[in-house]
Amino acid sequence: MNNIIKEIADNWKLEARQEDNNKYFFHTKESEKILAGDKFYVIGRKGAGKTAISEFILEKKEYNIFSEKLSFKNFPFNELYQLEDTNYTSPNQYISIWKYIIYSTICKLMVQNQKTEKEIKRILEDLYPSTNKPLRRLLNKWTAKDFSFSISILGNGMSIKLEKDLGKFNQSNWVQKVDILEDIIDEYIDDSKYYVIFDELDEDYRSFATIEEKSKYDFLITSLFKAVQDIKNNFKDKKNSINPIIFLRDDIYSIIRDSDKNKWTDFKIEIDWDRDKIKKMIAHRISVAVEGNKQEQLDFQKEWNKIFLEQPVKMGDKQTKSLHSFDFITRSTHLRPRDYIKYINECCKQALEDNVSKINNKIIKKVDKAFSNYLKDEIMDEVHAILPEIEHIFSIISQIRKPSFSIKEFRSIYNQYLQKGTIKQKNIDFVLQTLFNFSVIGNKSPKRDLCFFRYENKEARFNFNENIEVHRGLFKALQIL
What we know:
Layout: H1 2-11, H2 21-24, H3 29-36, E1 41-44, H4 50-58, E2 65-71, H5 77-81, H6 95-112, H7 118-127, H8 135-142, H9 160-171, H10 174-188, E3 193-199, H11 211-234, E4 242-249, H12 250-253, E5 268-270, H13 275-290, H14 300-304, E6 313-315, E7 321-323, H15 325-331, H16 337-354, H17 361-383, H18 390-400, E8 404-405, H19 407-420, H20 428-437, E9 441-444, E10 451-452, E11 467-470
Parallel strand pairs: 1-4, 1-5, 2-3, 3-4
Antiparallel strand pairs: 6-7, 8-11, 9-10, 9-11
């Protein structure tokens, strides 16, 4: 049994890129729709599994499936902001550059396809040679004035139309090349599947100093959604051969304000998790950790008992209350796969250290503190872009030192921080709303002993007339109780 514990301790990772995705990826209906090309906007919270889906698509290597991920991690967005198409007005001025990036990537992938016609393949290979250069360097090359191909590579078998298009390509700037590439792809693409994955677009999402800075980012993201929709419409007769896919955090998607946004609903997938779905995901992961093979129907309790002792976790001052170990762990999470992977992984590491064959209650409670610090760090990383003073705001909650308190109490201490100059953000309502949006806090009902958090209901809105409830997973990290 220690082999299972060791497998989980060593190989369950927070980052999907560092895991054996073919082994651990949990298939969902959502992933099937994305693969089919029917859905191409993937929206979800951080840690909800967006990267796992993108990595799964990226790793699907078959003779007729080609994919490339365009990561915007450490990308110089200021260079991208300069590539406006002045023929468009806001927020559409970046549609052309996004189309150009997508079409260039498709052409780059067509070179890898043995079914691509030889003549066009030679030309595309000259334009888009195989390389591991980052997108930033490729984009600089693709938008350069001298980006063209040698006339000598043209073959005698080239059609008059293609020769004319390619002649225009050599003489055009990058904006004019968009239509030329679109025509070439339309003419020469086969029935293979091409996936262009957009990830880590939140790199430039932050607390913007000016409205102009924020608008540029908003327009850039809005233009990407419109560019993808245009491309899918333009190639709808190609049986979903061309599949650009956007992976975006839900809090960023919510800031997009555009008259076309409602039309995107048919093509959007929101990654949501509930307890039943989480249980299926965990059962799958434990099963493949044990057996190494994937099964369709699994009994959660049977799989859970392979690594956890079958006993309730005692709680409360007198240890009179008890919870199932899954429910105890769930209280500290935001119902995200990443949270459970982290908690169970840490439990397995502790079990190895204690030299026990199964995770016991002592281990679960001990890991609860480490998990609380993890959750705090995760939230700080996520919220910092919007609330740079999040660490000081956490200090306010620690100073109150209660799981539930009134807004008046929070305002009182917050104002003390303002007066001392520790915090600069004067809009307390904005701070509270942001904390609620990221499920740091929820509302506590005055009539019933119920708490409402946004991670449980994305439609929930913060009620300024009710008390604040701190999320249970942050208690230890914030020295509450």
